[in-house]
Amino acid sequence: DTGVSQNPRHKITKRGQNVTFRCDPISEHNRLYWYRQTLGQGPEFLTYFQNEAQLEKSRLLSDRFSAERPKGSFSTLEIQRTEQGDSAMYLCASSIGTGGGVNTEAFFGQGTRLTVV
Amino acid sequence: GQQVMQIPQYQHVQEGEDFTTYCNSSTTLSNIQWYKQRPGGHPVFLIQLVKSGEVKKQKRLTFQFGEAKKNSSLHITATQTTDVGTYFCDSGTYKYIFGTGTRLKVLA
Q1: How many whole angstroms separate alpha carbon A47 and alpha carbon A78?
Q2: Under 8 Å between Cβ of A78 and A64
Q3: Would you say A110 and A6 are in contact if contact means Cβ atoms under 8 Å apart?
Q4: Which of B38, B42, B6, B44 is nearest to B25 (CA)?
Q5: Is the pLDDT of residue B82 over 90?
Q6: pLDDT tens for residues B12-21?
Q7: Cβ contact (<8 Å) for B42 and A41?
Q8: Do the Cβ atoms of B65 and B32 come closer than 8 Å?
Q9: Distance of CA B99 to CAs A66, A97, B8, B22, Å?
């Protein structure tokens, strides 16, 4: 399977615990994105990497959230001290960034559904 | 960043009826992309429109990009139950900004 892979698919955690999600993008894709999606809403942009560099982070993202892409391949998203409001689907996407003004298509993973109890 | 508004937010149609969703921007877009998300699934790319006035077809789906490159539409002819899902447009910038989408329900 050469698509975007996310692990775990589901995570239930107690409030206050830390969680970490992993995303393996399509191998030749240099751009990687994290999104959060709640019921009835569109995917909300969280952060974006080009290779190993984190180029943008949403202002909506609190300091409890951190993402890394250490070798420009897989990425992790960590949420510290989880709150019930963090319950959502966390989606990862990857694409080929051409550097020009026209974007290429994004390929999404199946997502990690987080439930904070 | 460039924001796009999508209407309607919800649409229920009888199977066999047509369906259209519209995407509008206050600024000129370099391109627009459309995605479909099935219930419980993840967004899947449908198409990208780049040229002013461009029209592209995929079987029963017709996509249009406005002459001013500020709006776009997706039209589905003779909907089927497999068309159920949420259709998102993206303003084609580097970080894929999605609106709330149009949720389509097809009644058999």
Answers
A1: 12
A2: no
A3: yes
A4: B6
A5: yes
A6: 999 999 999 9
A7: no
A8: yes
A9: 24, 22, 11, 12
**Distance between CA atoms of residues A36 and A46, nearest Å:** 7
Quote the CA–CA distance of B71 and B64 in Å, as a whole number: 8
Q: Give pLDDT tens digits for A47-69.
A: 999 999 999 999 878 899 999 99
- Extract long-range pairs of B72-76: CB within 8 Å, 24+ residues apart: B72/B22, B72/B23, B72/B32, B72/B34, B73/B20, B73/B21, B73/B22, B73/B23, B74/B20, B74/B21, B74/B23, B74/B34, B74/B46, B75/B18, B75/B19, B75/B20, B76/B18, B76/B19, B76/B20, B76/B104
User: Which residues of A lie inside 8 Å of B (Cβ-Cβ)?
Assistant: 31, 33, 40-43, 45, 48, 56, 91, 93, 95, 97, 101-103, 105-111
State both tokens at B92. Answer: 């084609």
pLDDT number for residue B2? 58
